[in-house]
Amino acid sequence: MILVTGGAGFIGSNFVLDWLAQSDEPVVNLDALTYAGNLENLASLQGDQRHVFVQGDIGDFALVAGLLAKHRPRAIVNFAAESHVDRSIHGPEDFVQTNIVGSFRLLEATRAYWGCLDATEKAAFRFLHVSTDEVYGSLAKDDPPFSETNRYEPNSPYSASKAASDHLVRAYHHTYGLPVLTTNCSNNYGPYHFPEKLIPLVIHNALAGKPLPIYGDGQQVRDWLYVKDHCSAIRRVLAAGRPGETYNVGGWNEKPNLDVVHTLCAILDELSPRPDGKPYREQITYVTDRPGHDRRYAIDAGKIERELGWKPAETFETGIRKTVRWYLDNQAWVANVTSGAYRDWVGKQYGAQS
Ligand code: NAD
Ligand code: TYD
């Protein structure tokens, strides 16, 4: 079996669902259920013996050690993190706690467990750390995309805390020989994306008749990957990646934010037109830019393609259409998550504009 952390979040829950759709290998899912964790994402697994959910913190050494001793996983996939840049600007402490201290304790518990495995199990064991392209910092307009050898230049408390965790993972390989793998992926989108991130926020606000907030001039570039493609990349790296290596994962889909929002508006105009017949793009509102906003991210996903034969299955056009349809078909999911803590966040971030 495998241990997945953060498997009730956006990418983690997509990963668990896809994993169990493709294999019978059981998953122990350790998730603290912060505001971003949602067991509703995994409702289709209710009663499925292959999925064991445990609510808890990756930073709880005793809990993790107990889970490892009990379930004896052959691999750990670490998704658990605080993941929202804007939240890291308002309150960096949780990011340091989970992304740095939590990852450290998870590594320590893993090292203790791995050290006691027999030689064959030890060699086969993998610790896969899911990270982000944001650790590389910001690119100028004409810079080549990030490769695995780019310098780490994180600019936000989020990316700095992820960079720190990447360094710890690397050190556990070089110092203790732990068979680690790290993936650095670009921006994901797709089902179960919490509606505080750009794409689900825009879909949600558009349908609710609210402003579509564009930070600054909207010309910041992100490289978008459909979440199911990220999950397939992680499965591929877990199966065939070389321990100690890092793999950049991306969709070859660089888009300025404003283009992404225009695309979403056009798809919504077609699939769910406004009652007054006007285009959704009329709801676009320019708001104050994010402090220290990274201008451009772009991923060179050549290494994972050359060495492991992985390529994304979706283009941006196919993936974004599936995503809009998913949100239209799952309004109840959106309504359930856009309560409580989420509303408090929107008030803090966008103030009167929300
Ligand atoms: P998310 O915020 O949607 O989910 C994170 C999950 O981790 C939640 O279920 C939360 O409850 C859980 N969690 C938080 N702190 C925890 C703790 N201390 N112990 C156990 N569980 C805890 O994030 P996501 O978008 O699904 O991202 C998953 C991983 O992928 C993160 O490590 C993130 O850095 C990385 N990543 C995300 C993107 C993206 O575009 N979303 C891109 C590249 C990499
Ligand atoms: P986000 O989804 O928060 O991901 P990240 O910051 O990790 O890239 O934001 C994606 C881009 O969209 C980023 O450049 C910030 C911008 N953005 C807006 O313009 N308006 C918004 O309301 C949000 C949430 C993001």
Descriptive notes:
With 354 residues, this protein is of the alpha/beta class. It has a domain at 2-189 and 227-251 and 292-313: Rossmann fold (3-Layer(aba) Sandwich). Helices cover 44% and strands 16% of the residues. The protein contains 13 helices and twelve strands. It has helices spanning 10-22, 61-71, 85-90, 93-115, 119-124, 157-176, 198-207, 227-240, 257-271, 302-308, 316-329, 331-337, 341-350; strands at residues 2-5, 27-31, 51-55, 75-78, 126-132, 180-185, 187-189, 212-215, 221-226, 246-249, 254-256, 284-287. The strands form three sheets. The chain has a seven-stranded parallel beta sheet, with helices on both faces. A three-stranded mixed beta sheet has the order 7-9-11. A two-stranded parallel ribbon has the order 8-12. Helix 6 links the parallel strand 5 and strand 6 (180-185). Helix 4 (93-115) runs parallel beside helix 6 (157-176). The longest helix is centred in the first third of the chain and has 23 residues, at 93-115. It is globular and about 65 Å long. The chain starts with a strand and ends with a helix. The model has no long low-confidence stretch (mean pLDDT 96). Nicotinamide-adenine-dinucleotide binds next to helix 1, strand 2, helix 4, strand 5 and strand 7. Residues 85, 187, 197-198, 201, 213-215, 220, 222, 257, 290 line the site of thymidine-5'-diphosphate.
